[in-house]
Amino acid sequence: KNISKYFLTFFCCLSATTCLQAQDAEFSQFFAAPLHLNPAMIGFSPMPRVVVNFRDQYPSFNQGYITLAASYDQHFDKLNSSFGGSVFADRTGSGIYNTYYLTGFYAYQLHLNENLLLKAGLQASYLQQNLNWDKVILGDMIDPLTGEAIIPSGEDLPLRETLHRPDFGAGILAYNEKIYIGASVKHVSRP
Question: Which H helix or E strand runs over 62?
Answer without folding.
Answer: none
